[in-house]
Specification:
Elements (H helix, E strand, L loop, with lengths): L13 E2 L20 H26 L13 H8 L7 E3 L5 H7 L3 H8 L33 H18 L8 E6 L6 H12 L4 E7 L2 E2 L2 E2 H4 L6 H6 L3 E6 L3 H16 L6 E6 L18 H10 L2 H12 L4 H24 L18 H16 L18
Bound molecules: thiamine diphosphate (TPP) and magnesium ion.
Magnesium ion binds next to β5.
Catalytic activity: N(6)-[(R)-lipoyl]-L-lysyl-[protein] + 3-methyl-2-oxobutanoate + H(+) = N(6)-[(R)-S(8)-2-methylpropanoyldihydrolipoyl]-L-lysyl-[protein] + CO2
GO biological process, one term: branched-chain amino acid catabolic process
Keywords: Metal-binding, Mitochondrion, Oxidoreductase, Potassium, Thiamine pyrophosphate, Transit peptide
Length: 395
Amino acid sequence: MQFRNPTEETALPTYRIMDADGKIVDNTRDPQSASDEEIIGWYKNMLTVSVLDLIMFDAQRQGRTSFYMVSAGEEGVAVGSASALTPDDVCFLQYREQGVLIQRGFTLKEMMSQLFANKDDHGKGRNMPVHYGSGKLNVHTISSPLATQIPQASGAAYALKMQRLINPNTPERVVACYFGEGAASEGDFHAALNMAATKSCPIVFVCRNNGFAISTASIEQYKGDGIASRGLGYGIDTIRVDGNDIFAVREVMREARKLALSGECRPVLVEAMTYRVSHHSTSDDSFAYRAKREVEEWRRRDNPITRLRKWMENKGIWDEDKEKEARAAIRKQVLQEFSAAEKVKKSPLRAMFEDVYEEITPEARAQMKELKRLIETYPKEYDVSQFEGGSKTLE
Ligand SMILES: Cc1ncc(C[n+]2csc(CCOP(=O)(O)OP(=O)(O)O)c2C)c(N)n1
Ligand SMILES: [Mg+2]
């Protein structure tokens, strides 16, 4: 009789291609599965996320937006994994994956429209900032209750599989489902993995293990070998990858996608190890629960953007001048879209009552009428001039 003790087992290894100095450590994998132009494109997309983050964080501090979430340190996981997907693949995001959206072609205008909840926002301004979504890009709208997207993603992957069984001419597609290691403590995570495994769904689960669930450090979140060990428990092909190494993330995602579509289809779990450099959100001050020095250390020692930059410089395709030029161009573009989106009117107030049922129900109609009465009775308290059509649309 032998009880297996997890502390006596060896931890799952972490796959990497490039070290923190941008040097290739695994020559069996050619980082050049893409052209120089494409790699520079990923780099610029990571820079875009990082520039956008700085500007939007400050905008919240100035009171120009209500909320924002920064993804500093995790740009490599998002951009690298998305670079391995096809436009037909379906994505479910948590909220710290702006890089996935940018890599898939979500424009800065779309981003700003959502952040300012103006009338160009796909969600008609009904959501908090950062809850992006795009039907065109096959990205389901982000929702705040943690982990709800994971079983939805398994279900969507099952639907994709059924679709191809019914009509084999439909393109091969996978679902890419992103979440944090904290969300993996929710029951939904377990139900989703088990469902995907037992139904052999074509899905790649991408867990961003960034060391924190708001103020709870990962060491207090679980006792086992990270999130990867759970995949094995559910009978799922699993790999742990260095999330700050964009080449490794991309290669892992390419293989995972292939695996997910092989044979009868199957799920794959990728645990990407990284570090949340930023505060959790604009509502958080992380120095209340972690040392500033720790963050500075990470920022200095390892970062997905500087790693790729070093690699590109070693290869002679990037230099200080190109860096300055790219940063200035991105900053200009972000600021342009920022000021344009800030001036656009909000969706008509009526949009609050629409799109739930085909027709507005009598109850909702009564509420709409009451809202109009309140707004018109207290015009000083309710300035609705920034909403297209003012209170007139509530009729
Ligand atoms: C069901 C639910 N519980 C709690 C929260 C509050 N909450 C928002 S984000 C978060 C931490 C999530 O951590 P993780 O999944 O690791 O993602 P990260 O923020 O590190 O990217 C918590 C507890 C929530 N949004 N939903
Ligand atoms: Mg986390």
